[in-house]
Amino acid sequence: MNRVLVFTALVVAVALAASGAGAGAASSACPTSNAPNELTLAGGSDQQAQLGKQFAQELQVALANTNGCPPTGNLAGYDVTYDAPGSGPSGIFAGSGSREAVVATNSEGLATAPPLTANTTAGSFAVAAHSDFGTVQFSLSNTASGLAASITPTGGTPQAAAVNSRYGQPLQARVLDANGNPVQGAVVSFSIVPGSTGAGASFLGGGQATAITDSNGVATSPPLQANGSPGRFSAVASTDGVTAVAGYSLDNHAAALTLGAVGSSSQSATIDSRYARPLTARLLDQDGQPIEGAGVTFTLGAEAANGGGAAAAGASFVGGTGQVTVLTDQNGDATTPAILANGTPGEFTATATVAGSTASLTYTLRNLGARLVAGTASRSAIVEHRYSRALSVRVLGADGGPLSGVSVTFTIGKANNNASAGFSDGTSQATATTNKAGIATAPALTANSIAGSFKATATLSGSKAAGYTLRNRAGQPAAIATGAADGISAAVGSRLPIRLAVTVTDKNGNPVAGTLVRFAAPTSGAGGHFTIRAHATRTVRVRTNAEGIAIAPSFTTNHTAGGYTVGVRAGARRVAFALVNR
Q1: Do residues 551 and 533 touch, judged by C-beta distance below 8 A?
Q2: Are 123 and 188 within one domain?
Q3: Is the separation of the CB atoms in 518 and 569 below 8 Å?
Q4: What tens digit of pLDDT does each residue of 397-422 get?
Q5: What Å distances lie between residue 381 and 346, 351, 474, 520, CA to CA?
Q6: In the β-sheet with 172-176, what is the strand arrangement from edge to edge?
Q7: 358: CB partners within 8 A, 6+ apart
Q8: Residues 6+ apart with CB under 8 A from 97
Q9: The domain boundary residue, chosen from 447, 473, 499
Q10: Which CATH number characterizes residue 121's domain?
Q11: pTM, rounded to two decimals
Q12: Is the peptide bond before 158 cis (omega within 30 degrees of 0)?
């Protein structure tokens, strides 16, 4: 009650002073008597703490005056009540052990709350500070970031080792916070839980072990040594703040092991295709019982390469590796991924081994060559024109079935006169991949400007090539050249000593074969006739041979002396022989 009277007197005094200031008194200096009339934040707002952890800064308020001048007088003893939310994200004050705390101001007008600890609910919240001079609020936040919320095994399970030998992998556990982010610096405890047979192990340096998580939230145990008792047992990893544990399945097996093939230990596949079956090995102890969780390492060998660099027959597991380690299942079986033969035919071996044991197994594998069957083996095109059908080949496996996904190389040859063709990019070689039907189709092919026949091939490593015969045909007749008979003379009524002949070529100078050439003698005056099977005729039609040459039948002059011409026509092109009857 006394504080209320004091506060009222101070307010009245301030009001009177303010009413007297209207006469022009100076207002720039702070008054000598300046009682507090408001509450302000002095520190601790806008901060964050992990769940269950203490906020780094204490919450603090200060008495102040709205005129901006420092308050005067006795500032100690004014009660300030700090009030955190009653539900959801909040905190607990030390001392009171509750969400509320009452603190008196000191001589400087400061009221500092007891340390505040975040509760277990993530999120933002406000803490209110109440006093006779008003209320202010602190903005705070609880976060689960960086706090362990889960622990899971990431390595070392399941696995097996021979009794009294070291396990191949340490145990690993990953610690994550509630947001799924790795927690660095968390302490993880690894413990061995012995099996019913007494089987167990110890960590190097002691029976149990601890490790600190790295930047990925992963903690790695020391190496693990099996004891002398065969059988299964387990291990667990735990960390503070997480009730669940990470579990590991381990197995001590007898030192004497046998490794046998499941199914045939030899098989074959066509080059560049999958083997029908993966490799499977079964691991048994000395009593013939299957061993579960043991690592079996499969290694694909290769045939010794010939010629110091020649490709060798071999294979790879799907994924491109030549070695994999697989854990045995409850039947003691370890099965590899699928196996893909490379492109070289031949026989090679694969092996299966178990670490810490002499048990091993050898497999015999063979890559078989594929069979290439050409599409239409011969085709032709006019020079400088595209072949109507692209080259194609079908690739068949050793079983006669089509092989898909196989790369085939098409190569275009060249005739002695340089007749050839090129693919759409101008090159003479192209690669195509077989489709589901096993067919590989080359890009479009265009003849060059030279007529003639030449070869092409489709090849696949380790297989016999498929061949094609291609022919560039001459274009349309563009020129006709007369032969040696042009300009000769003969006596009337006699046979010309040289037969009339012409050579027909296209625009590129290629002889045009098979084109029809018409020879025509004059209808009157000096002239003559051709003889076909004892029949005289003024005109004849003759086809050019492979060299583009058309040779007319023998020509006999008539009985009229004088010069004349024998006309020749091939397509739209014309020429004439100049002859004389003597």
Answers
A1: no
A2: no
A3: yes
A4: 877 889 888 889 999 999 999 999 99
A5: 40, 55, 9, 32
A6: 150-155, 172-176, 218-220
A7: 257
A8: none
A9: 473
A10: 2.60.40.10
A11: 0.48
A12: yes
